[in-house]
Design a protein that fits this description.
20 helices; Rossmann fold; 6-stranded parallel sheet; alpha/beta
Length: 474
């Protein structure tokens, strides 16, 4: 094809493309990304997008009463479905009110796409009405952020934002769109038509050599333990199934962080309960005395480790995480495997079976006898009170009365959150929504709203304390 023919072909292709306003591009991109629900609050700088939404029946908008509520509702939606949560807020105070939920999503690896309005491009930097430096404010609290100055870039940015938010270690992405860009027009491109500007290709497949080293180390262990986190849940239901298979093959006990509850069934005898400062006696003692620890999708949070020099001091440590920067970040490990938890678990199981590996039965029997002596302490036991209903009892009864229902639990933050983690038992992932890393009071009520939007026929319960629920009760 000659240069002239190429130019003609490009011109013809452009004629075939649909020309939309920036606001319409936002709405069309959401549809093409499979979005069904978004949470937001209108304001002057996003009115063009709201006008475009008005004519789109395929998107359901949930009107909140505070932008922090929108972000937490989107977190609940995302955490309970595995899909990205979407937020739409205006400029200035709309964006700053959303900050807490954005940080919360970053800490707990929740995929969010937060669309914020911005003053017109020629007013940026003039201290215009309801202007703030959204990009500067959110640079350190997002996985990535964008300021859209050219409407022709908007289709790529929208689709790229969803790719970044949901792949690798999930997290929040902010798209700041000036009002004049929302009015401007450009050719729309779908997800398969755009070319990413960022060479972001997170590694999902673990290194085969390190996986072989890891399974050999586990096979030689006398006191192994599987330490699991929210990364197993983020990797999808298949990862939880593989975790159960690995526990069965190795016979190792399983413990979890607060964010990992549900990845392993609480009814399984190998389940030791939650780990850390609010964890069970048996989980913490087993972690301290283990000789091989396998951390899967967990980040060695300070509430789990306590003093780093006293954390599992005699163990060899294997760490599986999709975020390479997490490996040996807080605790130095012996074998680091970068990859998706589900993919790595699948390869570990295949390696274990192909080499016909087994653990030392006599050593494992001794290990479990020791664990049962710790378990016999019944560390969460409490004295019944004939006069007052104790919170622990209330949550036990809630669990007993809802265990056969399609139930989702959200919580606020505080002691009631820990009682919920200890006394409500989860058999499957994506049923437990709580603010772990940031510990945000006011999370539970809007998160429950988001969960209910995702699962309209389910029973959604927010276990709350009075102080937390007042934070976002509007």
């Amino acid at each position: 094809m000659t240069a002239h023919q190429t130019i003609q072909a490009d011109a013809a292709a452009e004629q075939d493309q649909e020309i939309l306003t920036g606001a319409e591009i936002v709405v069309r991109s959401l549809i093409d990304q499979g979005v069904e629900v978004l949470f937001g609050y209108p304001g002057g700088a996003v009115l063009p997008i709201y006008d475009a939404l008005f004519n789109e029946d395929r998107l359901r908008h949930v009107l909140v009463r505070h932008e922090q509520g929108a972000t937490h509702a989107a977190e609940g939606y995302a955490r309970s479905t595995g899909k990205p949560g979407v937020v739409l807020v205006t400029s200035g105070p709309g964006a700053t009110n959303a900050i807490t939920g954005i940080v919360d999503a970053l800490m707990d690896s929740i995929p969010l796409v937060v669309i914020t309005g911005q003053v017109a491009t020629h007013l940026i930097g003039t201290d215009a009405f309801q202007e703030c430096d959204t990009i500067g404010i959110t640079r350190s609290i997002t996985k990535h952020n964008y300021l859209v100055k050219d409407v022709s870039e908007l289709p790529r940015i929208m689709h790229e934002a969803f790719h970044i938010a949901t792949s690798g270690r999930p997290g929040p992405v902010v798209i700041d769109i000036p009002k004049d860009v929302q009015f401007s027009k450009a050719a729309y491109k779908g997800p398969k038509e755009v070319t990413w500007a960022h060479n972001y290709h997170p590694r999902t497949k673990g290194d085969a050599g390190r996986i072989a080293e890891a399974v050999a180390l586990i096979a030689g262990a006398r006191r192994p333990i599987l330490y699991t986190g929210g990364g197993v849940i983020n990797a999808g239901p298949r990862a939880a199934e593989l975790l159960r298979e690995l526990a069965t093959l190795t016979g190792a006990p399983v413990t979890s962080t607060l964010m990992g509850l549900g990845a392993f069934p609480a009814s399984d005898p190998k389940w030791l309960g939650m780990l850390g400062m609010h964890g069970s006696f048996e989980a913490n003692n087993a972690m301290h005395d283990c000789d091989v620890m396998v951390a899967i999708g967990a980040r060695f949070d300070d509430r789990v480790t306590g003093r780093l020099d006293a954390f599992a001091p005699h163990s060899k440590k294997i760490h599986i995480d999709i975020d390479a920067s997490s490996i040996s970040k807080n605790v130095r490990v012996d074998i680091g495997i970068v990859g998706d938890a589900g993919s790595v678990l699948e390869d570990m199981i295949a390696a274990w079976k192909s080499r016909n590996l087994t653990t030392d039965k006599a050593a494992m029997d001794d290990w479990w006898r020791q664990i049962e002596t710790w378990r016999a302490r019944q560390s969460f036991r409490y004295a019944a009170d004939a006069e007052y209903i104790k919170p622990q009892y209330a949550i036990e009864r809630l669990y007993a009365l809802t265990r056969d229902k399609d139930v989702y639990i959200t919580t606020e933050v505080g002691q009631h959150q820990m009682w919920a983690a200890q006394f409500f038992h989860f058999e499957e992932p994506n049923r437990w929504m709580t603010s772990g890393g940031l510990g945000t009071m006011g999370y539970g009520l809007p998160a429950a709203l988001g969960v209910q939007m995702a699962h309209p026929g389910a029973l959604v319960v927010d276990i709350a304390g009075d102080a937390s629920v007042q934070m976002t009760m509007q």
